[in-house]
Structures
1.
Amino acid sequence: MKPYAKQFYKSKAWRQCRDAYFICQHGLCERCGDPGLIVHHKEYITPSNINDLDITLNHDNLDLLCQTCLNQEHHGAKQSVVRDDVMFDERGNLIAK
């Protein structure tokens, strides 16, 4: 967590907003339908917008995501740890397919 955001994410206002949004989404990831885990800001919180309630506490700026979809959001496909051009041999060594 970014140092400038610690106080916000510990605030009662954020916890209430996050919990209400989770309930509105029935606890399901909005991208894949798996159980949701993290209420994520679509427009990332920065030092310049952290006091803007239209960014921080607006349900229109939130997504409920599972861990996989959150990782995809933050790291993208270019850093995926899953490859389809390699496999393990019978001794557990990584080899080309």
2.
Amino acid sequence: MEKIMPYLLGLLIPVLLISLIATYYIVPRQTVYNFKEQMAANTIMTREEMETDLNYLVNTLKDVHPKTLNGFNKKQNYVIKKAYKKIESPMTAGEFYFVLNEVICSLKDAHTMIWIDTTKEDKIINLPIIWLKDGMYVSKSTADLKKGDKIVSIGGKTEAELLAELEKIIPAENQQWVKVMGKINLTKESFLNHLKLIENDYVNIVVQRNNKKVAIKLPLINQAESGNSNNNRNWVSYDIDLENSLGVFRLDKCIYNEVYKTTLKNFFEEVARNNIKNIAIDLRKNTGGNSQVINEFMRYIDVDKYLFYTGDVRISKQAKQQRGYTGEIDYKSYPKRVVANKKVFNKNLIYNGRIYVLTSSYTFSSGNWFAVVMRDNNLGVIIGEPTGNQPSSYGDILRFQLPVSGFKFYVSHKKWVRPNTDNDPENSLYPDIEVYTTIEDILNEKDPQVEKLIKIIYER
């Protein structure tokens, strides 16, 4: 059976940021966005220019986001007030971005975020990070670093200090997602500079190797020099383990198309042909997409109906412009939704065996929905690590651009409510059986979640 190693896939930022499409609330009209070019990061902005942008951001958040229906809370108002104080003197657009980002982060919604464009001239450090439960490690050997090195500090700051700083500038609902995005951003010059981790175009790194601390100076380099490349493995595939009567369906992205539907059908044909008693849905790299993949999967499961996501919609002037809503500005709540399962025509493919779901901190947005739907309908056992998203959260973003700096930002206008609200409040979907990946697992090419799954099957 093919190894299914978590955490080793490079993340594509756009997939992480724009990832939640729910079938229940799709509306026919979609806005065509004609964004202008963003201001260069080193451009000096005046107080008046920054005030114009900050006003636009604050007013948009207040008008659009479901969380601000009754205005900003005390903590959010404090962050906003602080932001206005910070812009009393001129600063670069790159510095101003982080002032704006702290305002965005005060909503604690991973789908509401502000984006800064990067260019080939932007520099990074070659630090392949993997952030596990017990700390940060080097995931790949380089000229200076060895795979498995434990990162003690970056720029003189410890893991705990870095995490506390990143929580202020990474939109997230839990620490898992801060770590997912943090490992990417801690290599970028803009973030390193903001966190004051750069010294004379170098970043001092201390790692623990063979029970000794080793100090390394990593230079800022052009991105092309890092040699990092994306993993091009298929986003949807499956394995059949006849010995353990186990089929593992792996879905890295929620893409609802013919490739998905054909692969899904082939999977259940093999499950039926081999009389497989256990199946697992591997969502450990799934950062979201189209939630229709869930309903399509359910067509092969022996249930007549199931609870699905519902939620609240804040219909603002901006939402009407971008989504084509009609009527008055309003806030609408929808009742609990029960889906009548449209099972596949071939009854031989209907599966009624045991179901397991594998999750990690990368399980996010519609990927998180998939796991939550299985949990809240008592259809499967969740194995792995807590997800990077709250089960009930916000999404379906509207897109905007600041008038002066040109920074693009996205604001949720819906509050998604999980199928079984009795399981709330939760800041993450916590597995029934928690199994964390360790650095030893990675070094020895072990898959602890699948190994645990096989052990459970064997002991039944």
3.
Amino acid sequence: MTDEELVDALKALAHPVRLRIMKALTGTERNVGEIDDAADIGQPTLSQQLAVLRNAGLVKTRKDAKLVYYRIDEARIAKVVDAAGALGGLSANPIQQSRQPAPGVANFARLG
């Protein structure tokens, strides 16, 4: 996941209405009417916010006749959680930063 993709995903999740949508989709697949009933958002706002979530790659869609069903893209959410966790050292793949010794400053070796 690129930094830009991570930023887009975090921005998408950091909105109260989109967070309600994601909570309504947790563990299930729902069509727009079902999401509206569960999250109590309203159709125009819901459509706009679902588009943001789709563009950020956080939800997947499936069409069945005239209904579009949404579900959380679990693989994508896992990548977002892992990347965010790496910032705090909570990830299985922490971000590695190389550090150069400062010139003119005593540098001590780590004993481990």
4.
Amino acid sequence: MTRLRDAVRLPPRALLSTLWPVRALAYVLTGAVSGAVTLVWIVLTSVGAPALAAPFISVERHRLALLGCAPPAAPRVRHRYTDPVAWRAFAYLVLHATALLLLDAAAVAVAFWPVLLIGGGTFTRAAGGGDAVDVWAGVVVGVLVLLAVVVVAVLAVYVVMLAALAHAELARLLLAPPDDAVARSRSRLVDAFESERRRIERDLHDGAQQRLLELGLTLVAAELELDDDPAAAKPLLRKASGQAKAALAELRELVRGIHPRVLTDLGLAAAVAELADRASVPTTVDVVLPARPPSTVESAAYFVVAEALANVRHAAAERVTVTARRLGPALVVRVRDDGTGGADPAKGTGLTGLADRVAAHGGTLRLSSPAGGPTVLTVTLPW
């Protein structure tokens, strides 16, 4: 647990066992004090405010550490009266001395209201009667008051934490220098390059590698036929030649970082139909979509089907069915075979890589493969 935004999601019992309520209260308390001081300072030095704001802004940056936030780096300000960074920080100080001061003061009042309620002596006055009936009535009223105080105190904790979180988010938004945005942009760019590298690796494994494996199997079969029946080897050699050309074409496309050509030109239905034509097991394709999904989703779905059809040879299947539908905001692709079942991602069937590919797009992969079959692979991708 490193930040207040994570702590707010905890259930009450877990939250109250941490120091986050105290840290949030310390943040709004110090915020109320510094907001009042800032208000006085703005009134007295309104003309030189942007030039004299640096100490106050520095305090506000470092107060964020109370909530587990790294203090934003100090920006490089070229001129206090012309730099938009300085005016943005000054705008935060104005808010801090007005609206945020009221927010912090209200949060402090909410935090201490249960204490004032207890200090009001409600229980003592209710239990202070002379006869037994009054005493028991006072006890009941006192217990109810204490329960009410506990409930109010828990609610007050969340109110204080939410007020602190709102104040802190506004501070981070206005006090973070442009360099932070540049750093975040660079980080996203690095992540995108890394994601693209992994995508190419998966495409090589799930696409071109499977074609080369089919080519190798065809050549082995042709070699076995050459000695006994050279005529029977000729169709196998022609098939191998076609597979080699297809593998080279797909490698060329992958190097360029694009989809398989048929997928790019004709869409998922045509691309899956081509996979079915090359499959080693008779495959029925039922892909009905109202429109083409995003290209990244099409690519993920295509390679899911390619890997699933390549894995069918391990299952002794006689028939495979591939279906794809749009269900609400998702593309659902299902590959079913009538093989022996027992598929396990831990056995190196390529399913782990498929799961990674699907997860990278925010989708889910489900596998049902009981012993004896059938095996059903269902992939859901956000449209």
